[in-house]
Amino acid sequence: MSLPEPREQDLLAGRLLHNHRHLPEHTDENTSRVVFAHGLFGRGRNWDQIGKALTAEGAISIQLDLPNHGQSHWTDEFDYVQLADQLAGFIRREGPSVLVGHSMGGKISMLAALRHPDLISKLVVVDIPPGDSAGISNFSKYIDDLLSIDLAGLRSRRDAEEQLAARESSAMVRAFLLQNLRRTDGWSWEPNLELLRRSLPEIGGWPGYDGPPYEGPVLWLNGADSPYVQPEHDELMRELFPATRQVRVKGAGHWVHSQKPELVTAILTQFVFGGTP
User: Fold this and answer.
1) What amino acid positions are annotated as catalytic residues?
2) Does one domain contain both 147 and 262?
3) CB-based burial of residue 150 (10 Å sphere; 0-12 exposed, 13-18 middle, 19+ buried)?
């Protein structure tokens, strides 16, 4: 399928993405830059611990809030191509970067590398293939769980935690979801939940790509216990990214970087500053 050419308005919109960064003590034109793109319901700070560790080794670390998440802008529709071009627009302002993308952010990152290879020096794809995603149906439940919380009656985050606990038994999942609860004059959700709910088929899909492959180094970092990446995904991944090295992390599921942060940090450090792990 032929995808549309990048639109300048999307490249410019990418410059507005909310981000926070960690800077090493000394930088020059050879300093590595690492940009992190989170998954569905995530935010840039999900990668903060690993970003700080890479900065301690000398890299500039930038954690983004993708559109419809965190403190970044909302869009009227969910379009992987548009989001990839907005991500590329942000990186164009910063300069060529190592791009790390998890889940939804991994799909956006793959398309950004394919469409803007001059901006991506290396690519890390975390637990997602270039294709349809198993497990996306779980997120419909998560959205319903969040929307069931009575925001108008909340007195504290503890109230929200108690309401969510009646519907979700995992404390890790509850903490991940409730990071999106914001209090200003009242309580509200930072993600664009209504858009994300009606866009789950698109989020779980893949827009297709018929252009040239991305020839740069690619690390495909997957959780050994995750259902998202299956053997049948390997052929297309290597067709689009011929320099792919796959690493499976034992004892980790879909949220590899949260479940095995020390190991993921070591693997990324080797990839960013050296070669393939």
Assistant:
1) 103, 194, 254
2) no
3) exposed
